[in-house]
């Protein structure tokens, strides 16, 4: 084998290894981009959304939620946008449409979606996006108020440990 063909083989191997590392990095980003956190309320999970939102990322988050929820004992998902500012949604002209699509996709699986943490800036973006279907989504100012709502719905209450 000539030194030139050896170099080509070495470069091919290096490209293959870099592609594998890239795939692993993309999988890691997918895993941490929308962590799924069990709630203190049974059959409920919390999805805190952070970082820049793009149409691709929204689709990935929806896919991840659907995959996780399928076959699980989940009947309520709380999606928390409190860490999202206007600059993270600057590229999304149709933010409200993605919220609507997320609620519909999850709802088709028989799972209730509660959205929390919409700031005034996020609210304005959704209104400006022109989505008319937003009236049907359940929103709460904070995670705490969503939990209080769920506890009333499930006829649950907090008790202090020493009672």
TrEMBL record:
Superkingdom in the source lineage: Bacteria
Coiled coil: 1-31
Keyword annotations of the record: Coiled coil
Keyword Coiled coil in annotation: yes
Cross-referenced InterPro entries: Bact_StressResp_Reg, STAS_dom, STAS_dom_sf
TM region positions: none
Coiled coil keyword on record: yes
Positions of the STAS domain: 42-150
Protein name: STAS domain-containing protein
Natural source organism: Rossellomorea vietnamensis
Lineage: Bacteria, Bacillati, Bacillota, Bacilli, Bacillales
